[in-house]
Amino acid sequence: MKPLNNLMRKLVAAFLAVGLASSAMAFDLDSDQPITVSADNARLDDGQGIATYTGAVELAQGNTRLTAERVVLYRSAEGLNRIEANGSPARYQQPVVGGEGETDARARNIVWSATDKQLIFERGAVIEQNGNIFRGDIIRYDTEQRVVTAEGGENSGGGSGRVEMIIQPRGNSSGSTQ
């Protein structure tokens, strides 16, 4: 069983390294491009450094997009340090760096933490990239160590409850990320 676990780790790392490594910061806080936010409602608590957006929320920076029903931005003295998005599902999209296509990730909860150096997709996580698909109840990406971990969930009748991957043959680039 251990060789299969090692193989699975290598496959997961190979599949996600390109997409999530480019997504490691979710939004590039060192970029000259601003992050724009639009929503139906906003509540800004400057004293706490918390901005809460609800209703068809859209965050964008260049070609990187996050859409959700609710997004909370946390700011410290150093600047933006955490983004929490919730939706049915929340969706994160970013072009693949140095390649064609885009990373398209969906989950009920998406959390980016600069402090923890983590990008987390929770509750029904699906990540697609060039026809490759990775599913799990929770998918975590350590942006510093570049390590991906995934957990299955309970079998609720909508799937096996296990972590699942579909990896396209090398020459197949016809995958869609819809």
Automatic annotation (TrEMBL):
<dbReference type="InterPro" id="IPR014340">
    <property type="entry name" value="LptA"/>
</dbReference>
<keyword id="KW-0732">Signal</keyword>
<feature type="domain" description="Organic solvent tolerance-like N-terminal">
    <location>
        <begin position="37"/>
        <end position="145"/>
    </location>
</feature>
<dbReference type="InterPro" id="IPR005653">
    <property type="entry name" value="OstA-like_N"/>
</dbReference>
<comment type="subunit">
    <text>Component of the lipopolysaccharide transport and assembly complex.</text>
</comment>
<dbReference type="Pfam" id="PF03968">
    <property type="entry name" value="LptD_N"/>
</dbReference>
<keyword id="KW-0813">Transport</keyword>
<keyword id="KW-0574">Periplasm</keyword>
<protein>
    <recommendedName>
        <fullName>Lipopolysaccharide export system protein LptA</fullName>
    </recommendedName>
</protein>
<feature type="region of interest" description="Disordered">
    <location>
        <begin position="150"/>
        <end position="178"/>
    </location>
</feature>
<dbReference type="InterPro" id="IPR052037">
    <property type="entry name" value="LPS_export_LptA"/>
</dbReference>
<comment type="similarity">
    <text>Belongs to the LptA family.</text>
</comment>
<comment type="function">
    <text>Involved in the assembly of lipopolysaccharide (LPS). Required for the translocation of LPS from the inner membrane to the outer membrane. May form a bridge between the inner membrane and the outer membrane, via interactions with LptC and LptD, thereby facilitating LPS transfer across the periplasm.</text>
</comment>
<feature type="signal peptide">
    <location>
        <begin position="1"/>
        <end position="26"/>
    </location>
</feature>
